[in-house]
Amino acid sequence: MDAVDELLYGEYDYYIMDSSEGKYLAVVSPLKNDLTNLKDQLIALGLQFVGTKETCPEDWLKNIVTEPFEMIEGVIVDPMDHDLRPSEGTIVIKIPQGLAFGTGLHQTTKMSAAYLKKYLKPGMDVLDLGCGSGILAILAKKLGANRVLAVDNDPLAIEVATDNALRNDVDIEVRLSDLFSDVDGRYDIIVSNIVAEILVVMLQQARNYLKSNGILILSGIILPKVSLFDNYDVVEKTVMDEWNALVIRI
Known about the structure:
With 250 residues, the protein is α/β, with parallel strands linked by helices. It has helices spanning 2-8, 32-44, 57-64, 107-119, 135-142, 155-167, 196-206; strands at residues 13-19, 22-28, 69-72, 75-78, 91-94, 126-129, 148-152, 173-176, 187-193, 210-222, 233-240, 243-249. The strands form 3 sheets. Strands 8-7-6-9-10-12-11 form a 7-stranded mixed β-sheet, with helices on both faces. A 3-stranded mixed β-sheet has the order 3-4-5, with helices on one face. The protein has a two-stranded antiparallel sheet with strand order 1-2.
């Protein structure tokens, strides 16, 4: 699925579903023309087209994920606002399964979250670059971060991340920004879960926004693209399926 993931990642919300009849790829878009154009590209990659279905986000999302799930050890994502009573030290993040990327299901989000939990110390300042749903920014705040700035170049993501911050009762800043275009200050951690080629562009400016000894947590890097980061100081790397996440110092 490498080529399929590379085509879809960061552009569409999508899920792989296993059933008794086989494995299915479900791709979701608010614009019907998007899927019409995408269909031919997926067929060219060797997939067999089954069909399309018009539905509202609430319907298809409820059919996919309704129950809380453990995104990483000690962090539970609740998609339906259940009355949870987690054990001491467990973090609960309320994230409805929506059209902004970052539901907590994707490998890249899980690896980013695991690195945040490992490296973030209370009082640190965190920048979430390409925040999507805001899930990583919200996690950073719940882990004890001081200032958390979440930015994205998609107005839908800004709307969703703002709503999710309120839903989780966390004080984070959410801004529309094309990479660093509307970012101020310096940060102990920059976390960015976007496509590899954009991460490479981002790294050219990242030093200007990192504190001394600051780190970058980068995810969304498909296996064939990981060589793009060979010339950087990679402190740690995690691989899940065809995806890489890196911790980098610059």
